[in-house]
Every structure is written in C-alpha cells, then in structure tokens.
Amino acid sequence: MIDLRSDTVTKPSAEMRAAMMSAPVGDDVYGDDPTANSLEERVAALFGFESGLFTATGSLANQLAIRQLVKPGEELITETFSHIVRAELGAGAAFSGITTRTWESPRGVLRAADPLRIARPDSGPYQVSTTAIAVENTHNFGGGTVQSIAEIKELRDQSLKMGLTMHLDGARIWNAHIASGVSFLEYGKYFDTVSVCLSKGLGAPVGSVMLSNKERVASARIWRKRYGGGMRQIGMLAAAGHYALDNNIERLSTDHEHARLLASSVSAVAPTVVNPAEVDTNIVILDLAGASISAAELNGELKSAGILASTVNPTILRLVTHLDVSAADIAKVNSVLPELVERAFKAK
Ligand SMILES: *Cc1c(COP(=O)(O)O)cnc(C)c1O
C-alpha cells in the first residue's frame, strides 16, 4: 500500500531507531532526562524562545499553550478550519473554559484584516473579550498553505496595539520554512507561544514541543502533569526528535515536489479539481465538486489500486506526501489517479 492518508503514518527509520536505543535517559517528571531537556532547549533556541516543553501530541502542545494565553470565559479567535477548532475535540472549552470564534478564509490563507475585523478585546461586562489569536502555518485542512510573513507581521503589529497575544500552531512549520525560506527565528518572533510537531513530516514516532517564555512553560509543565501527560524516560522519544531535526528538515523539499507532481497530473485531466500553483507544500486537496462520484467512492477505487488517501468531507479527498513515499510510489499513483479522476467527471 502507498499510504498518502497523512504524514503521521511515517515509521522511524533504522538510523532513527538506533538513535532512540542509545539515548541517555532519566525521569523527566523530575526534570532528569538529559535528552528531553536538550531537545526542549534546542527547539526553543531554534525559534528564539526561552523555554520548551516536550509533549506526547501536538494537540496537547496547542492546548497547554492557549490556556497560558486565554483565561476561562475569554475568547480565542482562529480560522474556521484550523486544527485547534476542528480536530482537537473541543479541548479548549472542555479543559480550559476557552470560548472560540472563527473567521473563514479560502485555503486557510491568513489575511491580517480577517482576525482584526472580529477581534473584540476588553469588551466590557456584556460581551466576551478576545485575548488571543491562533495562526496555523502551514494550514492543514487548507491544503498545506504557507502563511505570508508580511501578513503575520501586520497581524502582530496591529493586535499588539489591541493588547492581544498570538499562538502559532506550527505542526508543519518545517514545511513552511522549506517552502518559503523564512527562518525559524523569524517565524518565532511574532508569537507568544508556539507548538511544533516532530511526528508529522519529520518522521519521529511521537512528540511535539510547546514554546514560550520561562513562566508560561513552567505553568504548562504543571498542567501537562495535571492532564496525565507527565512521562518518565522519554529521552528515547526525544532522541527521535533530535534525529529528525538533524536529518529530516531539508529533505521536505522532496515531499513538496512529489505533491506538485500529483497535483499537476490531476489538473492536466481535471483542472477544476486542483490547482498545482496552490500546492505550497506536501498536502494535495482534490475538490470533486461536480464529479459523478463522492470523495469516499474515489477513495475506495484508489484503495483497490493499492493507494490510501483520506476523505475530508463528501467532496474533498486529501493526499499527503512524506518521507516513506518514494519517487516510484508517486509515479505509480500518477499512473492510476488521473485516469480515475477523469472518469469521475466523464461518467456524468
Ligand atoms: C497534526 C496537527 C496537530 C497535532 O496533532 P496531534 O495528532 O495531536 O499530534 C496540530 N495542528 C495541526 C495543524 C496538525 O496538522
């Protein structure tokens, strides 16, 4: 099977496993795990932050971050299809009493004017007050969209004047960096908290890191334990993160190239389904609006051909390239997928 459901399906390589096996470890709840500590320091320094906190998942990193910025009954605003409001199962409300409001943007593209239009800080005793803005980069459900650094900067400048804080959901910030050439330090500069995933395109089996100043990270460490997320000899997992940072960032450009190849071959037969110019990174969104079959049906046909994709909604199919997908795999998908898509439109 060629698995294009997500970049989370990658399996640790032999070299990564060797690094995990030989990692020095200690009890991380006591702060004794040298590999976890050095990973936290490394990622914090990479983005220009004082401190970092290793977490089991990106959702946990996001949730620990936003609860540092938004008090119960206050508001976090974000894009309608962002992971924080679509894929974390209401965690902000369930765990932290955070209320959310959203703006919608095609492909999840950030335009500073959108959040600024709905932000309502200091709303007084009758309306909810906005205290933070979350930005997703790259935007997952938007199709791996890379956000403009100029828009991020503009949003930071304007929202600071309003007394608002900003969180970056940077699960795939690695992909954004490779696609845009913008440095990690530059991306980090405009945010109060950041979350990054090591377990997506970077290929680690587990792990995310939450970044902020010392006080917020110390508080997040307490909340991580309270949520049951304090782990012991996690140096074995952190070592996979170190290995991923050493070896798997630059190669993301290959995944991006593969995604563009998929998009180009589909658009050649069905231009309304995907625009290759809009495939910024490793995620290809196929829009089957107007086709005679649903996304689930196309997914079934692909599965019969040995290809796994994911159905986002009845008309949207998502393909994600990653380090376990070779150029030969992409060629195989391109020998099957365009024909199936073309047929889905002709059969009408
Ligand atoms: C994957 C992802 C996360 C974190 O997901 P987990 O499965 O909890 O690790 C957060 N944000 C975005 C945009 C993601 O794609």
Notes on the protein architecture:
This protein has 348 residues and is α/β, with parallel strands linked by helices. The chain has two domains: 236 residues, Aspartate Aminotransferase, domain 2 (3-Layer(aba) Sandwich), CATH 3.40.640.10; 96 residues, Aspartate Aminotransferase, domain 1, CATH 3.90.1150.10. The protein contains 15 helices and twelve strands. The strands form three sheets. Strands 2-8-7-6-5-3-4 form a seven-stranded mixed beta sheet, sandwiched between helices. Strands 9-12-11 form a three-stranded antiparallel beta sheet. The chain has a two-stranded parallel ribbon with strand order 1-10. The two termini are 29 Å apart.
CATH architecture of the largest domain: 3-Layer(aba) Sandwich
Helix amount: 40-55%
Intertermini distance: 29 Å
From N to C, what is the helix and strand string? Answer: EHHEHEHHEHEHEHHEEHHHEHEEEHH
CATH H level of the largest domain: which superfamily?
Type I PLP-dependent aspartate aminotransferase-like (Major domain)
CATH topology tier name of the largest domain:
Aspartate Aminotransferase, domain 2
State mean pLDDT (0 to 100 scale).
Answer: 97
Structural class: alpha/beta
At a glance:
The chain is α/β, with parallel strands linked by helices. It has helices at residues 14-21, 34-47, 58-69, 83-86, 91-96, 113-118, 149-161, 173-180, 184-189, 214-226, 235-247, 252-269, 295-304, 327-334, 337-346; strands at 2-3, 51-55, 75-79, 99-103, 130-136, 165-170, 193-197, 208-212, 283-287, 307-308, 310-313, 316-320.
